[in-house]
Amino acid sequence: MEHLPINIDLRGRKVIVTGGITGSARKVGLALRAGAKVTVHAQKLGPDFHELVKNPALTHVTTRLVSQDLKDVALIFAACEEVDEDRRIFDMAKAAGVLVNVPDKSELCDFIMPAILDRSPLVISVSSGGASPILARVIKARLETLFPAAYGQLAGFVGRFRDDVMENIKSSAGRLRFWEKTIDGPVADMALSGDLRGAEEQMRAELKAAIEADGEPLMGEVYVVGAGPGDPDLLTFKALRLIQRADVVLYDRLIGKGLLNLVRRDAERIYVGKLPKDHIMRQEEITKRLVELAKQGKRVLRLKGGDPFIFGRGGEEIEMLAEHGVPFQVVPGVTAAAGCSSYAGIPLTHRDHAQCCIFVTGHGKDGKVDLDWEALIKPHQTVAIYMGLAQLGILTSEFIGNGADRNLPVAVIDNGTRRNQRVIIGTLSTIADKVRESGIEGPAVTIVGTVVTLHDKLKWFMPEKQSARAAQSSRDAIPAHMSTK
Between the ranges 77-86, 210-219, 258-267, 353-362, where is the mean pLDDT highest? Predict the structure, then answer.
């Protein structure tokens, strides 16, 4: 994050804008809407100022801005479009300790202006840090459709009750739960539909109940959530909602990079990652911690890579939760075999190759590989092996030793669905050596079966090419007259 997003209270404060062009008028309009007293320094005001000059908080002067004008000024927008003059104003503002913005000149900016979605008192801003204002504008346009004007009405409505809630619900946890229930419940539904009277009646009833319950021991809840194999876009809507609700997050090493950025900033994060024979926290300790935190009244997120119920030990965790009377929810995730094989262009089933698919784990209880080899070597099926990288040589030898064709195709998909995905292709007799030479460390899933032969034809996810293509698409999307070349 190159810029800290903040909202500045400009009510009654002085803002200076230089220039009488369209860009200047836009900055004046924003400052006036924020309650500022605006002085415009310009020889002449363009037609975009026609309505703005009627605002009593706007003063137009034709004199050149000098250092004496900067007393008690909060912000300056220098939009003269004259390089030397903008530089002079920037230097003068810096000397006076006043924040200044020169549009389209990032080197002359103490702050940058985001694309703004105004649903007062709710304001949403989108910024690319100056890298791509057009992209920020496009995202803002999409947000316009997600947050209609009624959200401003909702924000104003709940704001009326803020002091009552603060005064009467003493515990911070109680206040947090109350507001979350309000925003995600019938009060918000009625306010958004325009039924403010009904919303107020419901609000007062819920506030009364919350006050009566305040201080009583709270039982929390545990969310056992599958995060998928890595790509954050594979999260379900429900998973995202619960991720953003949690007070505490227990996460493992398999979750994709960036997923923790979706967690609330004030949520506690506890790493419980596991490597083969190297457990930061043993499974029994993890499950015990889930129970303890929930009994403290916290909403606990157990964030797992893949799916909690497919070699994720989610079943063991909720067994103990049920035994201790802890409420829980389970959110399935895209399991590694499905996600990684899809991104590798290897269908798990195919009419010409496999009519069934078997999921197995590459290591059993106490580290021993004990699989039903007779079932695994049958024709016309695919075998997906989880957590088998460390034992790949043993596994392939067992396949061959139990009668499988040594030339049966095998794929090892490393960091599947992620930007550093790699796919190693071989056969039962060659794959272990190829993987060893590649140096991959996982997480990885192994696919055994003739469906692997479709990889070269069907592979579509090639991160290095996709990145180059995305960059080119971004350049092509910029009109010629906006190019910086």
Answer: 353-362
| Residue 205, number of CB atoms within 10 A of its CB | 11
Q: What is the pLDDT of residues 124-135, one digit of tens each?
A: 989 888 788 889
- Separation CA 141–CA 368 (nearest Å): 55
- The residue that leads in pLDDT, 109 or 223, is 223
Mean pLDDT score, 155-178: 89
CATH number for position 22: 3.40.50.720
Active site residue 252: yes
Mean pLDDT of the chain: 88
Residues in the chain: 485
The answer to whether residue 478 scores a pLDDT higher than 70 is: no
The DSSP result for 235-293, as a single string, is --HHHHHHHTT-SEEEE-TTSPTTGGGGS-TTSEEEE--EETTEESS-HHHHHHHHHHH
Question: Of 290, 315, 334, which residue is a domain's last?
Answer: 334
Per-residue pLDDT reduced to its tens digit, 271-305: 987 655 555 678 889 999 999 999 988 899 999 99
**Count of domains forming the chain:** 4
**pLDDT of 447 strictly over 80:** yes
**Distance, CA of 279 to CA of 174 (rounded, Å):** 35
Q: Which domain holds residue 203?
A: 150-213
Catalytic residue among 105, 140, 181, 274: 274
465 as an active site residue: the answer is: no
CB 18 within 8 A of CB 41: yes
3-state DSSP helix/strand/coil % of the chain, to nearest 5: 40, 20, 40
Percentage of the chain exceeding pLDDT 70: 93
**Shared-domain flag, residues 311 and 347:** no
Residues 374/402, Cβ–Cβ less than 8 Å = yes
Q: How far is CA 335 from CA 126, 247, 258, 306, 310, in A?
A: 33, 25, 18, 4, 7
Q: Single out the residue in 213, 235, 254 at which a domain terminates.
A: 213
Query: What is the DSSP pairing of strand 268-271 with strand 248-251?
Result: parallel
Is residue 350 domain-shared with residue 439, that is, in the same domain? Answer: yes
Peptide bond into 56 cis (omega under 30): no
411 within a domain of the structure (yes/no):
yes
Which position has the higher pLDDT, 217 or 264? 264
Name the active-site residue from 252, 298, 307, 414: 252
Based on the domain organization, do 305 and 195 belong to the same domain? no
The verdict on residue 477 lying in a domain is no
What is the per-residue pLDDT for 170?
Answer: 86
